[in-house]
Design brief:
This protein has 125 residues and is mostly beta strands. The protein is 7% helix and 38% strand.
Length: 125
């Protein structure tokens, strides 16, 4: 059993570990969830669980279709919703899967606020 601390080989630098971000600070650009009739489509790079004031997941996505000011290939972060999280879990969506999130309609919440109803689609490829 080794008792000394291992030293990295000469010329190596420590690599940051992806998906180890435990804060709400991301290097990607934030994108709003889609409006009714719009879609966010891309490859899921990371799902950061229970973030922010409401313990909501943050999805990090590499866009495969342009949306708003963002173009194909841009890296974005987007807040999920309970419904999106449930759909991700039920369909066992994981890193590398291509997803699309659409806003299909609106509804009035119990507190009187108008909310959007989202659907999650997963590529069959």
């Amino acid at each position: 059993m080794a008792t000394e601390k291992a030293e990295p080989p000469e010329g190596f630098t420590k690599a940051d570990a992806p998906n180890q971000n435990n804060s709400d600070d991301y290097d990607t650009e934030w994108i709003d969830r889609p409006e009714v009739g719009d879609m966010v489509q891309g490859t899921l790079l990371a799902r950061n669980l229970d973030r922010g004031e409401y313990d909501t997941d943050v999805l990090e996505i590499k866009l495969t279709q342009p949306v708003g000011e963002f173009k194909t290939g841009d890296l974005v972060a987007m807040w999920a919703t309970a419904g999106i999280e449930d759909a991700l879990d039920a369909n066992e969506v994981s890193r590398g899967d291509e997803i699309a999130v659409t806003a299909d309609s609106t509804f009035t919440a119990d507190n009187g606020d108008e909310r959007r109803r989202y659907s999650l689609y997963v590529s069959e490829d």
